[in-house]
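User: Could you go from structure to sequence for me? I need the amino acid at each position, not a summary. Structure tokens:
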């Protein structure tokens, strides 16, 4: 998984967004960490290779990539490394962050399976037992359309063994 670094005031700015916008940012950032492309982005080649601008509502620039390749002007800004759960970073309670993280992980896994098996949306719909339009939502990262329970069911249908691990 790629590291996630918040540069300058980006983390504080994100934490000030409404809950739904913070969730959207979290799902998109997790996708980027997993090597998937976000839904609305453009490369920032002027800053460095592997750096992308992620646009959510107010065109907030979030940088995810190799911080060693960023320009000096960017490097002078404070960098906050992710805790490992982007939803905790964004200020959600530990309980909600855990659920959102699980949803992100399963959704990313499903997107990777569809891509790696080169399934058409019609074939993926057949395998997953859902409509083609729901597969489209899944591929486009429409996280708000899928509960954790639904994602677990879809992953199981795709042959993924899902287990819950607890740690004290």
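Assistant: Here is the amino acid at each position, in order:
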């Amino acid at each position: 998984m790629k590291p996630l670094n918040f540069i300058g005031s980006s983390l504080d700015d994100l934490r000030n967004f409404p809950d739904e916008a913070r969730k959207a940012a979290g799902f998109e950032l997790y996708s980027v960490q997993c090597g998937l492309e976000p839904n609305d982005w453009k490369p920032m080649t002027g800053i460095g290779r592997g750096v992308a601008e992620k646009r959510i509502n107010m065109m907030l620039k979030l940088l995810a990539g190799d911080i060693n390749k960023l320009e000096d002007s960017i490097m002078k800004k404070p960098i906050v490394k992710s805790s490992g759960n982007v939803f905790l970073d964004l200020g959600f309670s530990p309980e909600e962050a855990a659920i959102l993280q699980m949803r992100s992980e399963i959704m990313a896994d499903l997107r990777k399976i569809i891509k790696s098996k080169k399934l058409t949306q019609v074939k993926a719909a057949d395998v997953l037992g859902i409509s083609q339009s729901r597969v489209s939502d899944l591929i486009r990262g429409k996280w708000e359309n899928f509960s954790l329970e639904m994602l677990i069911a879809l992953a199981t249908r795709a042959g993924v063994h899902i287990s819950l691990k607890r740690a004290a």
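One structural detail worth keeping in mind: Residues 94-116 form the longest helix (23 residues).
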